[in-house]
Amino acid sequence: MDEEKAFLDLKEKILRDRGLDVNQYKENYLKRRIAVRMRALQLNSYSEYIEVLTKDKKEYISLFDKLTINVTQFFRDPEVFVAFENEILPDILTKNEKKEIRVWSAGCSSGEEPYSIAMSIEEAKEKIGLKDLKYEIYGTDIDDDALSSAIKGKYNIKTMENIATLRRNKYFEKINDTTYLISEKIKKNIKFIKANLMEPFKINFFDIVFCRNVIIYFIKDLQKKVLQYFYDSLKDEGILILGKTETMLLSFRDKFKCINLRERIFKKEKD
Ligand SMILES: C[S@@+](CC[C@H](N)C(=O)[O-])C[C@H]1O[C@@H](n2cnc3c(N)ncnc32)[C@H](O)[C@@H]1O
Q1: Residue 80: pLDDT band with limits 50, 70, 90
Q2: Domain edges within the chain
Q3: How far is the CA of 110 from the centre of ligand 1 (A)?
Q4: What angle do CA 254, 266, 107 make, to 5 degrees?
Q5: Angle at Cα 266 formed by Cα 19 and Cα 171, nearest 5°?
Q6: Which of 44, 101, 106, 249 could hold 211 in an S-S bridge, CB 3.0 to 4.6 Å?
Q7: Closest C-alpha residue for ligand 1 atom 12
Q8: Could you tell me the fold of the domain covering 78-268?
Q9: Is residue 68 scored above 80 in pLDDT?
Q10: Residue 29: what pLDDT?
């Protein structure tokens, strides 16, 4: 079979079987990633790879491990963390004098996002004077490698350029000139769990959900499904924070009220 035609068939198959529109990945990137799996399985054509995916559904796990884009950073888009720390958190924490909050970092990659959230919560706790506040952050992802880096909590200085020196000294242990380890004080509040966003996670459980730079890779139908799961996972008036380039689907605008358009911050409307 013509390889270009087989490549189209393969993309359609992934969409049909798993709802992931891989057309959203750049073609060269996609071909390189698929080639890694084909080499590992000693296959020479896309049609052979289609056969493997048909016979062995587990191959999707290995393929998705290779496909997912894990790029992340501490305090990625710093402005959103400024709004989170100075507006969203004080509002949530002082209302009803909360004693505990739960946050979900959905698609947490190698942990920089949930650790940044934890640092912001620590800082807000100090500023507001809520020393006894407890918090729990769930970092979930489908990528095993990303999760095991997150659990290690060891980072190269290059990914830390958005962290102010004061915070770096406060929340990290210096291993050497280029490597830092996240402190136990932060780490103990975070649970890293392997979970697929295409399946429901928790119900009426979280005060805040971060899902940034993840659903942009999903087709509309899948985005709808995932946004509904986020809605279900949040408590009433819970907060959803999307990525800078992600938009709320029209059909969800009566479920999530936009409270900060620039930073893509939404509040769950009561049922
Ligand atoms: C670009 S990273 C974003 C990391 C972080 N949220 C940020 O904004 O810096 C996207 C992450 O989403 C994860 N991901 C992609 N599809 C997923 C799915 N169906 N379920 C769970 N995680 C997924 C990838 O493994 C990857 O680690």
Answers
A1: very high
A2: 3-67, 78-268
A3: 9
A4: 115
A5: 95
A6: 106
A7: 107
A8: Rossmann fold (3.40.50)
A9: no
A10: 79
Say if domain 3-67 classifies as CATH 1.10.3470: no
Ligand 1 pocket mutation pick from 18, 60, 61, 68 by most atoms within 8 angstroms of CB: 68
Locus of tokens 């890779």: 217
Q: What is the pLDDT of residues 121-138, one digit of tens each?
A: 999 999 988 888 999 999
Q: Is the CB of 107 within 6 Å of ligand 1?
A: yes
| Range 58-70 average pLDDT | 81
Question: Is 233 close to ligand 1, i.e. is its CB under 6 Å away?
Answer: no
Closest by Cα among 126, 108, 115, 235 to 163: 115
Residue nearest to atom 8 of ligand 1 (CA): 212
pLDDT band with cut points at 50, 70 and 90 for residue 201: very high
How many whole angstroms from 115 Cα to the centroid of ligand 1?
A: 15
Mean pLDDT of the chain: 92
Give distance in angstroms: CA of 209 to centre of ligand 1.
14
Q: Ligand 1 centroid to 70 CA: how many Å? A: 6
Q: Which residues of 135-170 are buried (b: 16+ CB within 10 A; e: fewer)?
A: bbbbbbbbbeebbebbeebebeeebbeebeeebeee
Quote the ligand 1 centre to 210 CA distance (angstroms). Answer: 11
Looking at ligand 1, which residue's alpha carbon is closest to its atom 13? 107
Enumerate the β-bridge partners of residue 154.
181
